[in-house]
Amino acid sequence: MSIIIKGGTIVTPRKSYISDIKIKGEKIEEIGLDLKDDNAEIINAEGRLVFPGFIDSHTHLDLDTGYTKTSDNFKTGTAAAIKGGTTTILDFATQNRGESLKEAVGNWHNLSKGISSCDYGFHMAITHWNEEVKSELGKMKDQGITSYKAYMAYDNLRISDGEIYDILKALKEYGGLLGVHCENGDLVNTMIREQIKRGNTSPKGHPLSRPNIVEAEAVSRFIDIAYLADAPIYIVHLSTKEALEEVIKARRRGQKVYVETCPQYLLLQDKLYFLENFEGAKYVLSPPLRKKEDCESLWRALSEGDIDMIGTDHCSFNFHSQKTLGFKDFSKIPNGIPGVEHRPVLMYTYGVMEGRITKEQMCSLLSEMPAKLFSMYPLKGALEVGSYGDIVIWDENYQGNISSTNQIQKVDYTPYEGFKTLGRAEKVFLRGTLVVDEGRIVKENYGRYIKRGEADD
Ligand SMILES: [Zn+2]
Q: pTM of this prediction?
């Protein structure tokens, strides 16, 4: 049976307009005014916005950090995603050192299969590089992996500048885009020791050990490496105005540099590390939260089109049982915060409703750009004939508030506790099937693995 979504305002990055959408099976069959089909189910969307399903291209679900594991797995994390209107996530399949890429992808399939409530794909995080790993890149593409990640920080993950150069060159041959976590890991290690030595063992020491320059220097270095390799790149979770300046400079010399930032770098600031009773630990993530002027420059960049995507870097650890691992030493606090459930409503409330970005820009940042960059467009990230019926019917007037007591992310706090919100994903369709109604999940585990790159061929 077909479904016709009637009379909603369809939002695209270029314009918004009132139209009907007819879905047949998994895909959009027709878009136009006054669509008729006696056999179709009619969904009234008058007075509602209709977005293409949102894509979160940065999550860490069921991630084992070596001494603890994220509190959200694929079951709970993807349920939280779909409830908020995110129909697709891209998680980071991470290679354990010594492991082949094939093994790493296999591990992530095992973690996600059959229990995911939104669609999902994997970026491949390379933590160990040699000729053997290089020879696997062609096969990765066949498995639907078109993007990679490397780390410049974290001793168990980071690789050298030369290896990053080598990977960029290899990806030119095999296809694929490399994103990098840009912080100078060596400097971070030294500056952590410096803070601990001074007696700054509480969460206050966290931002002091990772100042803005630590990110900006790494961003500039990554950009230079990419210049030498003559390759496009993307920078994950950019957080500072200095790093943004490096990106803008690189684009002026003709480099293709794509940038992601996250809601936390727009809405939260480093004064939170000074909260009493170890509460600052709730905000320990890397890069750390920054100052008001950084937030402002990121908002400006969003409105001017200098930032391409909003991901969450969702990486949840319970405050009471996991963040406490670093009670005596901030560097032992597991790094990461939850956010996959709330990204759309935060960007709508504090971006669109506050006039900092338009709803069309929100559509680009949360849907179209991640779909394009990560080889899913126009099957995903678009409301066009032939696209998947990944559709969010958005109620602009719904008033809510964010709280750990009403979220479904499986974590005992939210960094946005008490934030008032406007709007919500009232109905969500995943490949033509209604999975969220009245803001509640009505169909679980409907997500499937998305083999990316198929739309490119
Ligand atoms: Zn991350």
A: 0.97
